Amino acid sequence: MHFLSVPCGGILTKRKGTILSPGYPDYPNLQMCAWTITVEKGYNISMFFEFFQTEKEFDILEVFDGNYTIRNFRYYFIYSFTTPKSLRFVHAITILLVWFFYSLL
Fold first, then answer.
1. What is the pTM of this model?
2. pLDDT for residue 5 is more than 50
3. What Gene3D superfamilies does its record include (predicted)?
4. Among 13, 55, 73, residue whose Cα is nearest residue 37
5. Euclidean distance between CA atoms 9 and 95, whole angstroms
6. Is 50 exposed, middle or buried (0-12, 13-18, 19+ CB in 10 A)?
7. Which CATH number fits domain 4-102: 3.40.50.2020, 2.60.120.290, 3.40.50.300, 3.40.190.10?
8. Which candidate, 80, 86, 98, 81, places its Cα nearest to that of 33?
9. Where are the domains of the chain?
10. Residue 101: predicted pLDDT
11. Strand partners for 33
12. Banded model confidence at residue 50, pLDDT cuts 50, 70, 90
């Protein structure tokens, strides 16, 4: 299965998919997109950002291992890059939260 997601935030439960910024390659200011990615027990979550570029100090990507509402974080990442990069995360968990903050200031 493959899905393509353009909305800003949601819950993803399929084995494979793509998340794009709203309006990609451009994106709106002052927006927060929160994605929850879940898989069945025994599977890992692997995320690969093929092209990742942000406005330094204005745009942020946060990745949480666990359920945000219970604040049970095992890992916490914040990335802000001004030059294009590719990123890869692999987690041996069943719930992963991904937050994108666009143009915070």
1. 0.66
2. no
3. Spermadhesin, CUB domain
4. 13
5. 15
6. exposed
7. 2.60.120.290
8. 98
9. 4-102
10. 61
11. 100
12. confident
User: What gap in Å lies between CA 15 and CA 56, rounded to an integer?
Assistant: 32
Tokens of 70: 């219970």
Distances in Å between the alpha carbon of 87 and those of 28, 30, 72? 22, 23, 24
Tens of pLDDT, residue by residue over 56-101, are: 777 777 777 765 554 454 444 555 555 556 666 666 666 666 766 6
The label of the residue with tokens 């987690």 reads 91
Q: How far apart are CA 86 and CA 52, in angstroms?
A: 6
CA-wise closest residue to 65 among 42, 99, 31: 99
